[in-house]
Each structure stands twice: as structure tokens, then as C-alpha cells.
């Protein structure tokens, strides 16, 4: 029924040609988008540009093309072409006359998170073939070592060639119905709803619009209620399908069978409700426990079912940019916000060059969200399994936990300040029945989340909490050293990440707190010096590390060396073992660990990082008892760099250091 509509609808297509494809990700996967789509990937080390040719069933008026890029194998640019065969020639891809429509650039996603970019390109062009030309990939040696490009999902929205735009522009109810674009005709909706219900929901939405055009508003209200129920059921079914696939992957076939029966019953009930038919579940259907389902999915993989958070911006040729963020961390993500996606229910503009308009509104939100607001929304939704465990134990007040997870940065900062006072008064509060160990673990999870927060005020409020927890609380309640060690290992990594933050206040406060932690007496007395060990962890060659963060880590290592001194007692052992634990017996910096870190920084691709590493190594070599050891490690590192780069690459940096040492 939808195929005969004059309004814009999703057009099926077939893959006519692709330059290359990975064995496990064929191009034909793009023909049926779904929440579990893995999409298309090019072959390893392929030649560029890669081309995909899509064939429509008939010549159509194409109005919008949408694509979701791969989270890591991302093309730097995608060009779009449309074409058709001359009337006197056979309908074959070799006879197509192409017209270039334009191009869009894709973001590189250097964050490493499971984010997928959604592009919506508005246009108005006629044809029966669409071609995509994908240019070389963004560099990502860690997650895309084979230099591939990929697309997760693709959709084409079009109208019949005989659609009357002039008639649709008239202000009559019938014309309004003809010009209507359903919010459910969108690729973002396809990736969050069960495929069996997508088409049914679109048909119901068209039926509702026809009733509105005839001013049968009571009937339209009933259809809208059926649509809402079908959307909710479709999103729940998509989650259940992924849970079933996960159970099969871990060979828990009993749980998978329960999921299968529950899916079938829920699907039958949803279809019957949408068609206004009474439904009775099977007599032998198992009772599906939602609590057990949530527990089974608490560690759901980020790539299995992405949550959707959109921000739109007008770019060249009226393209809309969005992100499908899959780093959920834990818990089944709520998909009921599907109408907050970037569905465009306004008449589509023609294909022409436009400048960026910063005041574009995001449909469903009342206005364009700022980057900070989007970051806060993502942070608020990313509850970890540790946070869930914390709330279940009851070690912290539930209202305080709710405030710590608020979307308001001021509320989160206030919650951390209250928690700092609660740490200082623990034991005198008769209402808290948790043991010191349980309370310590609960507060540690909240403190780690505060260190990871993007807001400056929240991050700075978390620092006093970490100090009160690791110093005052551990001493007052005589917690074992293993708890202090565990706390340091939880809090140091997010602080190291914040060394590369764009906010100078966050960078400076993180650096000062790390130096303070390394100087705490109990931390220095630990045999393995966890803070120094984590700070001097070597950088991986070719890793996608921000230059600002890499330089800050080298500067932090130099500051630790000056503050704590060099361990002469363990220098030889550390040098033989390739770095040891990072600290000496008295909390000093191990020479072996410092040299390992310094030469790993010297092999990075950023020039500023190499200069900082060279300065650090020269400073260590200025000590008479360390000069010979630095030269020996330099010879070994030079040989390793030559083997890794085939005789070139990082050798100039090592030769420069050798010349200065001599």
C-alpha cells in the first residue's frame, strides 16, 4: 500500500556493482537495514575510491539519501551520482549516464567509542541508478589496521516521477496529505525497530494522515494510539532479538529458546494490536521475566544495539549530521525516544549550495542543542555495571545517586560535594548500615565517574572526594593496602585521559592531583607504586593518541622524576626487565621504567611529543651514573625502530638523540 503513495517513501534497491567487499560483510547486507545490521566493508588494503552502484526498481524522483557510516572504518569523503540509461539502450550499468550531485565529508571518530555517523542528504533528482564513491579512509591504525571503509546502513527516499509538486503545494487537506512526510520513513527509525513492524507502522501512519485530511480526528486518535504501541513493541522486540543472538553466542540455548518464544508471542500480539485484532498467547508460552532479561543484558556489547542521540547541522547541499552512539556501557538502553531523531517532516529543499545555519532547530527538541548539552545527555545515559551494583547494595542514599546521575552539571557537582561530607562523617551516621569496605567501593565508583565527567565543575568537585576517600577514609577505617591499590588503579586512568582535555582547568587539575597522589606516604610505601606505574606505562607505537595528551604525559613523567627522584637501588633490575613496576622500593621512579616510557614517546608520530621525550631522556642522561645506561637503551631502541619501520620511520629522532648524547 505504501508503494502506491504519492508522498515520500523508502525505495527498495539492489546492489548492482561494488568495487570490493569483505567476506563477512557483503554489499548485499545494505539492502535490508535492521537494528542488527553489520553492513558492508571493503576488502583489506583496497584501492580507492571504492564504488557502490544501487539500482532502483524503476525511475524515481529521489528526494533524500541516508547512510550510516562504520564506527571505525570511515571514508574521508563520499561522492553521490545519479543516472539513467538512454531510452534507446538496454537498462544496464554500463549504459548509465551519470550526473554528479555533490559530496559529503565524514568525521573521523578519533574518540575510539562506538559512534556511527548518520548523514541525510536532501536533493531533487530523477534517475534509476545511484552511485556512491567512497574515498580513502581516515587513519585509525588501532581499530582499522587494514585501511578499509564501510557503511552500516543505507536508505533512499523518493517519489514517483508523476508526483505533482504544484498540487502538493496548495493549501488543501488533500494536498497536505500528499505532501506529508512520515517521521517513520527514516533510516534512524529502521535501526531501532523490529523489521516486521516497520512497514506496518508506516502504513498506519499513512492511514492516520488520510483520516486527518478528512477531519476524522476521533478515528485518527485511535490509529495514533496503535502506532505508539507498535513503535514501543518494535523497539522492545529489537532488543529481545539481540539478546537471543547473544544467548546463542554463549551457547545458552535454553535462554535462547525462552527469548524465541517470547519474541514470537510479543510480535503476534503487536501485529494483532496494530490491526485491532484480539490476541491470545499460546498456552505453553513461558512467562518472560523482564528483570532476568535486564540482568542478562547488563553487559550488552556496544556494537549490538546502538542507542540514538542526534544533533543536526546544515552543511553543504543541506546534509544533516547525526551520531548513533553505541557506547552504552551497561543495561538495556531505552529506545522509546525514537521521535527525537532527526526526522525531517518539512518540505525538502532543492539541491543547491547553502551556507551553514547555526540556528537550525532539531526536530523534537524545540531548538538546536549545544555540544555541552549533548555531552551531558550521553554521560547521563552511560551507566556502568558498577554503578548499577552500587545502587543495588544500598551503600549510598538513592536520592544522592539520582542527583549524581542528573543531566544538570550543577546537580552532579552538588552531589559530589555532599558525598565528600558523607565520607568525612561516615560512622557517625546511624542510618548507614554499610560496612566501610562496601561504602568505599560504592563511593569509588561515583568518584571515577566524576573524574570522567566532561564538565569542569563536576571534575573539580570529584577531586576533593578522591582525596578524602583515598587518604582520610582509608586511614580512619584501617582499610587494607589492597583497597588503596585498587582505588588508585580505578582513578588514575581517567585522570591520564583528562591530560588531553580541551579545557585547561581540567588538564592542570588532573596533573596536579596525579603528582599529589604519587607523593602520598602510603602510596609511596607500596612495593609496586601503582600511581607511578600507571603514569609511566609505555605508549604504543602507532596508537591514535592525541598530541596534547601525549605531550602532557611526558611532562608528567618529567615532573614525577624531579619530585620523587630516581631509584638507584632497583635501576639495574628494572633496566634488565624492561621497566619493572615503575617505582622503586622507597617510592622513587625506576630508571628502567622511565627509559622504557621515554623511548616509547620518542617513537610517536607527533613532533612535539618527540621533542619532549628527547628533553626528558637528555635530562636523565645528564646524571653520570645513568649516561651509559641511556646509551645502551638507545642502541636497543634504534634497532627495534629500524626493524619495525623497515629502516626508516622514527630513526631520525633516535639519530638526533644519539648526536646530542655524543
Describe this structure in words.
The protein has three domains: 8-191 and 306-369, Jelly Rolls; 192-305, no CATH class; 508-662, no CATH class. Helix 18 packs parallel to helix 21 (607-621). The chain has 662 residues and is an alpha+beta fold. The chain is built from 23 helices and twelve strands. The strands form two sheets. Strands 1, 2, 3, 4, 5, 6, 7, 8, 9 and 10 form a ten-stranded antiparallel sheet that branches.
Mean pLDDT: 75
Q: Please report the total strand number as a whole number.
A: 12
- Termini gap: 82 Å
| Percentage of residues assigned to helices | 40-55%
Largest β sheet strand count, sense and barrel closure:
10 strands, antiparallel
Q: Uncertain segments of ≥5 residues (pLDDT<50)? A: 1-5, 278-393, 569-580
Number of helices: 23
The CATH topology of the largest domain is what? Jelly Rolls
Instruction: Look at the structure and name the CATH superfamily of the largest domain.
Output: Galactose-binding domain-like
Overall shape: it is flat
Known CATH architecture of the largest domain: Sandwich
Name of the top-level CATH class of the largest domain: Mainly Beta
Structural class: alpha+beta
Give the DSSP E fraction (strand runs of 2 or more residues). Answer: 5-15%
What's the number of domains?
3
The radius of gyration computed from the alpha-carbon positions, rounded to a whole number of angstroms, is 29 Å
Amino acid at each position: 500500500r505504501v508503494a502506491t503513495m504519492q508522498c515520500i517513501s523508502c525505495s527498495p534497491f539492489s546492489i548492482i556493482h561494488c568495487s570490493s567487499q569483505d567476506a563477512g560483510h557483503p554489499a548485499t547486507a545494505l539492502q535490508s537495514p535492521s537494528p542488527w545490521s553489520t553492513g558492508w566493508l571493503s576488502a583489506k588494503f583496497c584501492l580507492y575510491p571504492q564504488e557502490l552502484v544501487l539500482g532502483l526498481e524503476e525511475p524515481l524522483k529521489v528526494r533524500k539519501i541516508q547512510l550510516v557510516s562504520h564506527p571505525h572504518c570511515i571514508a574521508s569523503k563520499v561522492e553521490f551520482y545519479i543516472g539513467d540509461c538512454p531510452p534507446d539502450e538496454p537498462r544496464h550499468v554500463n549504459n548509465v549516464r551519470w550526473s554528479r550531485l555533490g559530496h559529503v565529508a565524514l568525521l573521523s571518530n578519533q574518540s575510539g567509542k562506538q559512534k556511527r555517523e548518520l548523514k541525510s542528504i536532501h536533493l531533487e533528482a530523477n534517475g534509476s541508478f545511484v552511485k556512491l564513491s567512497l574515498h580513502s579512509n581516515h587513519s585509525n591504525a588501532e581499530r582499522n589496521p587494514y585501511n578499509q571503509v564501510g557503511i552500516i546502513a543505507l536508505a533512499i527516499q523518493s517519489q514517483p516521477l508523476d508526483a505533482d509538486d504544484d498540487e502538493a503545494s496548495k493549501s488543501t487537506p488533500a494536498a497536505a496529505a500528499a505532501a506529508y512526510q512520515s517521521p517513520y520513513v527514516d533510516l534512524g527509525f529502521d535501526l531501532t525497530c523490529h523489521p516486521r513492524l516497520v512497514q506496518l507502522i508506516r502504513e498506519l501512519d499513512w492511514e492516520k494522515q488520510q483520516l486527518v485530511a478528512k477531519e476524522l480526528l476521533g478515528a485518527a486518535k485511535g490509529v495514533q494510539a496503535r502506532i505508539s504501541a507498535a513503535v514501543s513493541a518494535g523497539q522492545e522486540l529489537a532488543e529481545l532479538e539481540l539478546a537471543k543472538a547473544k544467548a546463542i553466542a554463549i551457547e545458552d540455548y535454553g535462554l535462547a529458546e525462552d527469548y524465541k518464544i517470547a519474541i514470537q508471542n510479543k510480535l503476534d500480539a503487536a501485529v494483532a494490536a496494530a490491526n485491532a485484532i484480539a490476541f491470545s498467547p499460546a498456552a505453553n508460552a513461558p512467562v518472560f521475566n523482564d528483570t532476568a532479561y535486564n540482568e542478562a543484558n547488563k553487559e550488552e556489547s556496544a556494537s549490538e544495539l546502538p542507542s540514538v542521540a542526534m544533533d543536526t547541522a546544515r552543511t553543504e547541499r543541506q546534509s544533516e549530521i547525526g551520531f548513533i552512539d553505541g557506547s552504552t556501557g551497561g543495561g538495556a538502553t531505552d529506545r522509546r525516544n525514537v521521535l527525537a531523531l532527526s526526522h525531517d517532516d518539512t518540505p525538502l529543499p532543492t539541491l543547491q549550495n547553502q551556507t551553514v545555519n547555526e540556528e537550525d532547530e532539531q526536530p523534537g527538541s524545540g531548538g538546536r542543542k549545544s555540544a555541552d548539552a549533548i555531552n551531558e545527555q550521553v554521560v547521563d545515559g552511560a551507566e556502568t555495571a558498577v554503578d548499577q551494583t552500587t545502587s543495588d547494595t544500598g551503600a549510598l542514599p538513592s536520592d544522592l545517586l539520582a542527583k549524581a546521575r542528573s543531566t544538570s552539571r550543577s546537580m552532579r557537582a552538588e552531589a559530589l560535594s555532599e558525598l565528600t561530607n558523607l565520607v568525612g562523617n561516615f560512622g557517625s551516621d546511624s542510618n548507614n548500615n554499610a560496612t566501610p569496605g562496601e561504602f568505599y567501593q560504592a563511593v569509588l565508583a561515583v568518584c571515577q565517574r566524576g573524574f570522567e565527567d566532561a564538565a569542569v565543575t563536576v571534575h573539580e568537585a570529584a577531586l576533593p572526594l578522591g582525596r578524602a576517600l583515598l587518604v582520610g577514609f582509608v586511614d580512619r577505617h584501617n582499610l587494607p593496602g589492597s583497597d588503596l591499590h585498587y582505588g588508585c588503579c580505578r582513578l588514575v586512568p581517567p585522570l591520564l585521559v583528562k591530560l588531553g582535555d580541551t579545557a585547561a582547568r581540567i588538564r592542570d587539575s588532573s596533573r596536579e592531583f596525579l603528582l599529589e597522589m604519587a607523593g602520598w606516604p602510603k602510596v609511596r610505601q607500596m612495593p609496586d607504586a601503582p600511581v607511578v606505574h600507571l603514569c609511566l606505562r609505555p605508549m604504543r607505537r602507532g596508537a591514535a593518541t592525541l598530541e596534547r595528551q601525549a605531550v602532557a604525559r611526558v611532562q608528567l613523567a618529567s615532573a614525577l622524576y624531579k619530585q620523587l627522584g630516581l631509584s638507584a637501588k632497583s635501576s639495574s633490575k628494572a633496566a634488565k626487565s624492561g621497566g619493572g613496576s615503575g617505582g622503586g622500593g622507597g617510592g622513587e621512579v625506576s630508571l628502567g621504567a622511565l627509559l622504557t616510557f621515554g623511548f616509547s614517546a620518542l617513537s610517536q608520530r607527533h613532533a612535539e611529543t618527540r621533542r619532549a621525550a628527547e628533553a626528558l631522556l637528555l635530562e636523565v642522561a645528564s646524571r653520570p651514573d645513568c649516561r651509559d645506561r641511556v646509551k645502551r637503551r638507545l642502541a636497543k631502541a634504534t634497532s627495534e625502530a629500524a626493524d619495525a619501520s623497515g629502516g626508516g620511520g622514527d630513526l631520525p629522532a633516535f639519530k638526533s638523540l644519539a648526536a646530542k648524547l655524543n
